[in-house]
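PROTEIN DATA CARD
Card holder: Site-specific integrase
Chain length: 322
Origin: Nocardia yunnanensis
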Amino acid sequence: MTQEPMQVGVPPVLTVRAAAEQFLDSLESPNTVRAYRIAVLRTIERIDTTEGPHRERPLATLTSAEVGHALESLWAKASVNTWNARRAAVGAWLRWCDDQGWPCPTVPRQLRRATPPLLPVAAVSAAALDALTSRTDVHLREKTLWWMIFETCSHPRELLAVDIETLELPERRCPAPGRSGEHAAARAVAWGPRTAALLPLLIGDRTRGPLFVTHRRGRRSRVLPSTDVSPETGRARLSYNQARHVLETVTDGRGAGWKLHNLRHSGLAHLAASGCEVSDLMVKAGPIRPTRLGRYLSAATAALEMPSSTPPPREFTHRLTG
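Structure generated from the sequence above:
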């Protein structure tokens, strides 16, 4: 019996499946592993990865065309989010293989990430907001915050980060901290007559510290940065989750009421309906892509035609917010 000579120093052929398993083993997050495993292994199954009986196909023989065909046949008709997720997972696998120095294909360039359609925003009419803030069970703090979001068209988090000493009350403006971290550049925001009338009442005798604060002093066990505590009252800066919870509760009570960002969107929609130039709308909105302004333009007419009714008063207590 003739024995084949042993090949010394020749590394084993890396198969498609072995490369996939090594990639998945390199991931740390269980959720990522679960999602990527679905995308990568189903793509491999769709491709003919066999090379004769009981032989796995080498990774180096895989082509971009095969990868693209598998992706399209599996998920071309799926939702935008599913397509993007599966495409990204397979792309991450192939890039990882390339980083290891293994010959491998890429996701075809023509298979681009899909852009989800921009849905019209849900606008709230000024009359509806006026009716809501006229209710006696709504606190002055909420009335001020809601009108300030509506009139400045600012992100709620920007306004919650505002301090009293930065307000320019006669000019109806203030710098709003950026949303990208503490080093983000501030931008000037300006409000209208409703906010201007409410701010002095909310501020009272306070001269510095957070503009929007909780109704009670913070727990001693909770350590907050000094910038997030009023030096005059000891009350903590109102958080986004607290503010969100109050609005959703007072307008519905089951977590499906108005949202804080609806007030910003509604303010932009009303400006668009009043004939505000696109350039001015972009300044008011802050950093925003011009293509996204269509959401507010399409909502403008609907916002003006919405009825002024608001949810009827219901049992509501500010103890929910602390």
